[in-house]
Structures are given as C-alpha cells and as structure tokens.
Amino acid sequence: MRLKSKTLGLAGVLAAVAMLVMAVGASAASAVEFHYTGATPTKLLGEATSSQVFKTSLGTITCKKLSIPNNKIEKPAAPSQLATIDYTECSAETLLGSSEVKEPVVAPYNFLATGTVEVVKPIDIELTSLGCTITVGEQTLPKAVSYGARGTKLPVEAHAEGIAWEGCLSSGSEGTYTGNSLVFGESGGELYVE
Length: 194
Known about the structure:
Blueprint: H1 2-29, E1 34-36, E2 42-48, E3 52-55, E4 59-67, E5 71-73, E6 77-78, E7 80-94, E8 97-100, E9 105-112, E10 117-119, E11 123-127, E12 132-136, E13 139-141, E14 145-147, E15 154-167, E16 170-185, E17 191-193
Antiparallel strand pairs: 1-6, 1-17, 2-5, 2-16, 3-4, 3-16, 4-7, 7-8, 7-9, 9-10, 10-13, 11-12, 12-15, 14-15, 15-16
C-alpha cells in the first residue's frame, strides 16, 4: 500500500509540474506585443497630435511637435520598441521665469507593449534663457502610456507620473508627462498592440 501512495504522490507532482509548464507556455504565448502588418524592417515615424507637457515642482515645459528621426520597426511582432524622440517648438514657464529651450530635446525611450516606458539614456532639457539644464535620468515608468485602436497610425496617449528629475538648483520625483501622438511605419502597414 505504501508503494502505491508514493506512486500516486509522484504522479500528482508530475501532473502539477505539467500544468505549471502549460500555464507558463500559455502565458508566454499570450504576452502583449506590438504588431506591424507592413514590410519590416521599416522606418518608425511619429507626430504629435497635442502639446507634450512635462510638469515638475519647478514649472512646466511644453513642446508642440515631436518626431522620430532614426528608429526602425525591426520585426512584425515584438514586446518593446526603441524610439528616440526629438521634441521641438518648446518653451518653459518656471518659478525662475520663462525660458526658451534648446532644440531639439532628444529623448531615448524603450516603449513596452504593456504601457511601461523606460528612459534608456538621460534626457537633457536646456533652459537657455535661464542658463541651466533639467535632466531626466534613466528610469522605468510603469503605466506611462496607453495605445489606441489598430490602424495605419497608432494613437499613443502619455500619462506618466512619478518622473525623477534634477537641475536648475532643484530636484524631485513628482514629475508628470502628458500628450497625445501617432506612430506609424513608413511602409504603410497597420500597427496594433495585442
């Protein structure tokens, strides 16, 4: 009787392991990814559909335009997408006064299909009229963006919070970033997140 109990115990453990392996496999198969139906690799493009606004306790930096000059969609499906964004037509209203901003403001990001955004290199925002620079360092921003409906241009809505920054004799981790944009592939395929 004892041997039978050990056999059933081992069978139960093996069944549990098999179920775990199937669950992990199903989870990996259902992971959220960016999808592109056009020919790859292709140039990734983007444009602002609203002002891009970065707010801190020091003040507000607003940029009217953005572009993605040098990135590509490499594969038809991927869990993340690198995009270095150039912001232009920027201005700043701060506690220290108004300022022009040196352009373009270059921001290297890694966008995850889950909505998380990683700042992969420091972003320097030079306030030329004030003679100082605000730096947003490397960091991960969970739930920073939402993606819209499938189409040849994919809507992206930014709503990042808890952004750490420093510069202009100040620092904080309460920064927010909001703005709407569209991203699309040069070869004309549809983009979607699923």
